[in-house]
Design goal:
Strand order of the largest sheet of chain A: 1-9-8-3-4
Number of strands of chain A: 9
Oligomer: heterodimer
Largest sheet of chain A: 5 strands, mixed
Helix content of chain B: under 10%
Radius of gyration of chain A: 14 Å
Radius of gyration of chain B: 13 Å
């Protein structure tokens, strides 16, 4: 799986949009970009994933650059409960296969009141 | 969304004893489950992959005789830490994969403290 690079930490004001960047310059054509987050002392929570088109769900939006070498996770209206470590993960689509996720160090997002 | 239940949430045990952690998929059949370990201020590290009805596949450096994994049904996998020592104290997290779906669902984790 391709390596990802994320800033170690970010601050964001409550109510504002939080934009979390991720670089994955070695991504291959059939690798997806996944985002998970981990609130302190809990298991990771799936947020969103995409291949090349921008994606949006009830939690967030995922913007992937045209060359697919970077992406941005957007939390449109951050709340204090969004404080967590956010992991950007690139992996092959495995279909019925069985591959665990490889977690990097992620970005510790701190929402300030 | 799919729910993965992990039990217990925390456990304290004496050195030399064994501890069993359960991971259940509550509303789907998990053909594959994964076990992770996380030390304080570090990221999750994959320990092993278990497929229902077959032997687990362990990551390099993980002792299979120390961390026993059983995946006897499509909804239950267990991790047993045998002869636990203080260095095994960690946060253990399971995750489950439903068939060909690409999302992995995670349990809430088990904090193990070995005295």
């Amino acid at each position: 799986d391709a390596k990802t690079t994320q800033p170690p930490s970010m601050d964001c004001a409550e109510g504002r949009a939080a934009n979390l960047p991720c670089n994955h310059s070695t991504i291959s054509g059939n690798e997806y970009v996944y985002w998970y987050r981990q609130i302190h002392s809990q298991g990771p929570q799936y947020i969103i994933h995409g291949l090349k088109n921008n994606e949006t769900n009830e939690m967030a939006s995922l913007i992937i650059t045209e060359d697919r070498k970077s992406s941005t996770l957007i939390l449109p209206h951050a709340t204090l409960r969004d404080t967590a470590v956010y992991y950007c993960i690139v992996r092959l689509y495995s279909g019925g296969g069985a591959d665990g996720l490889t977690f990097g160090k992620g970005t510790h997002l701190i929402i300030q009141p | 969304g799919a729910v993965v239940s992990q039990h217990p949430s925390w456990v304290i045990c004496k050195s030399g004893t064994s501890v069993k952690i359960e991971c259940r998929s509550l509303d789907f059949q998990a053909t594959t489950m994964f076990w992770y370990r996380q030390f304080p201020k570090q990221s999750l590290m994959l320990m092993a992959t278990s497929n229902e009805g077959s032997k687990a596949t362990y990551e390099q450096g993980v002792e299979k005789d120390k961390f026993l994994i059983n995946h006897a049904s499509l909804t239950l996998s267990t991790l047993t830490v045998t002869s636990a020592h203080p260095e095994d104290s960690s946060f253990y997290i399971c995750s489950a994969k439903e068939g060909a779906r690409e999302k992995l669902f995670f349990g809430s984790g088990t904090q193990l403290s070995v005295l």
